[in-house]
Amino acid sequence: MQFPESWLREFCNPPLSSAELAETLTMGGLEVEERRPVAPPFTKVVVGEIKEAGPHPNADRLRVCQVDAGQGSLLNIVCGAPNARAGIKVPLALVGAELPPGDDGQPFLIKLGKLRGVESQGMLCSARELKLSEDHGGLLELPADAAVGADVREVLKLDDSLLTLKLTPNLAHGLSVYGIARELAALTGAPLKTPAIAPVAVALKDKLPVQVAAPDLCGRFSGRIVRGVDTKAATPAWMVDQLARCGQRSVSPLVDISNYVMFEYGQPSHIFDLDKIHGGLTVRWGKPGEQLKLLNGNTVTVDEKVGVIADERGQVESLAGIMGGDATAVSDDTRNIYVEAAFWWPESIQGRSRRFNFNTDAGHRFERGVDPSRTVQIIERITQLIVDICGGQAGAIDDQRLRLPEAKPVTLRVARAARVIGMPLTQAQCGDALRRLGLPMEEGEGTLVVTPPPHRFDLQIEEDLIEEVARLVGYNNLPTMAPLAPITARVRPEVQRSRFAVRHRLAALGYQETINFSFVEAHWEQELAGNANPIKLLNPIASQMSVMRSSLIGSLLQALKFNLDRRAPRVRVFELGRVFLRDDTVVTTDSTVKGIHQPMRVAGLAWGDAEAARWDGKAQRVDFYDIKGDVEALLAPLVPSFEATEHPALHPGRAARVLLDGRAIGVVGELHPRWRQTWEFAQAPVLFELELDAVTARPLPEAQPVPKHQAVERDIAVVVAEAITHDALMRTIRAAADPSLLRDAVLFDIYRPPVASDGTVAPGGLAQGEKSMAVRLSFNSDSATLTDEQVEAAVATILEQLSARLGAHLRV
């Protein structure tokens, strides 16, 4: 929330400097994220009144002005602004003035000079030249009552500061200048000025019929008719400036008044064009399929979970507590209006704006809680401003109270507050802190019972009151105490690597880490993870992030898309993150939630060339085997095995399960062509996703003696059917051989006979549908050097088993 410091000091003005005031708010829990001046420094800029303005003799676009700067004689100023005319007051930079730096970063010094042969004794300034705004369409016109010769900084109050507060969601009572002033008064002891809001004289008896059909949506609804307003009246300059310093653009007088009061007191309101309302209004929940064109031009479709204000015909006119509709918006032709201020239950507003992919100041306040006791006062304040600026006659206020929040007393135990805060506290100190906040309170023996006022939605449990006492005492006054509990380091077992080591290993393999949200788009879960029943969020931060992820693949694909959109030539990314799966066996503990399994996984993605560009050869595109090698390197010294599998996100013929000791721990493969086309990738990325527990596990190393005898190698080439896999061949060889003799078996060649154009197989001892697989066998013994007879017998046993199990025969 942004606002000018001077506005805050109108309600509470403690004897503090601007920096001290910002520090006080921050230490009181209202973090001042930024403090900056309203305008940059400049000197010798005064109010000048143009007495005469005539054409320049030598330039069509320039005018020669006679300007009164309060010096007794008129100054001759050459100006090119289109609105330079006699009778207006504008900023005048005198000779010797120093204006804010330009694009070159250097201050702009005003000197006596000539423009096309005519002497100019200064410069008339626009708002952009003074760095007040980006408006450079003409001179900045000052109020007609500004004193000629007065310093422009004083006239426009440019020595003010803008404060930007970063408020936590529980500080809804701080979403207004008055609310911040109330907190500042409690923190400093300075008096709080609460201006009296006098009722506006009622000149009309008519009321607009309003029916509140949903008390669980709207607890209080107040409104009044105002007739005969002039919507073409100009918003006063002071209000335009105040709104601009709150970051709000001036729109029209009625909209500006509504926004001004919202920033002033924190109560959003809405103004309808009365003549565009058919009959009366009904406050109710929406109906599926109903549509509404909003003030921002968007058309939304509501349902029974969204509150609306509809007219007598059932036509939806407004999104309750969020934004009004275009059909009843005020315009220059509006003459009669209906002013509305209501209390909307926070839970009925929460998350509704995000469903429609936008946010509003009104929704931001209502979903956190707005004081329901001031709706009538707010309407009186708005009405008074409307009558003062736009004229008109006010009708009686229609105030309907249906169901308001119940103030439930909260008990604070002084002893517990002292224990939690960590410093000795007396009951008098706690009571003083709570009284300064204006909280109704009853004292007992060692207890304080507080009844939260209507504007405090955050005081619900004892810890809330302890927080209030702590921040009023002052966080900077809390003592520094060493922890009393024994601290025991958790020693990681040797059979487990740290997650940091896994990150380092992947970084060494050329991957870069990404961190993504745990909530993703629903269609990712259904299409990429094959999860038909994902865990849905009750209040997602955005409509497209509505479910919890059960796979990291979608997040990595999104990261790839982001990089490719920025023309990244090569992408290798990974993520260590938690996934969320339904599991009825999980019970609620300190670290688990009933019915939800939350394992950690590690996933990686590679796209582009296997290696960075090289001068000595053509780059090769990354493929399945590159990533398979990375997985093996990541799991080392464990040796995984791979078997073909199907996965909804992966290519049906280029995907494999990763197994350790026969247990599946993840998948590796190329992205499915369907998803490659959907994401518009020029080539398919290759991905892997593994259970992190399996990756962090590692066996303790065991010392092995160096072989004392020379190994013996034998090469065999066996002819097998095309369907026989490498894995099947190796399993058969190892099962057939004596493990004390066979130390290693490595496939080093696969041969398939070429096929002639007529479909016949070239000679080579192989029939169609067969292939030759050559394996190098390594034998050794710990007891003695192997003889040829022992080796030949072992080879024969292997060939016999290959023939029996796989139908293989030795290639001749």
Count of distinct strands: 42
Determine the N-to-C terminus distance: 85 Å
Structural class: alpha+beta
Low-confidence stretches: none
- Beta-strand fraction estimate: 25-35%
* Main pleated sheet: 7 strands, mixed
Enumerate the strands of the largest sheet in spatial order, edge to edge or round the barrel. 28-31-34-38-37-36-35
Morphology call:
elongated
Q: Taking all residues together, what is the mean pLDDT? A: 91
Rg from C-alpha positions? Answer: 39 Å
Helical residue percent band: 10-25%
Helical element count? 21
Explain how this protein is built.
The protein is an alpha+beta fold and 812 residues long. The strands form 11 sheets. A 7-stranded mixed sheet has the order 28-31-34-38-37-36-35, sandwiched between helices. Strands 3, 4, 5, 6, 7 and 10 form a 6-stranded antiparallel sheet that branches. Strands 12, 14, 15, 22, 23 and 24 form a 6-stranded mixed sheet that branches. A hairpin with an 8-residue loop joins strand 6 (89-99) and strand 7. Helix 5 packs across helix 6 and helix 12 packs across helix 13 (462-473). The longest helix is centred in the C-terminal third of the chain and has 19 residues, at 788-806. The protein is elongated and about 120 Å long. The protein starts with a strand and ends with a strand. 35% of the residues are buried. The model has no long low-confidence stretch (mean pLDDT 91).
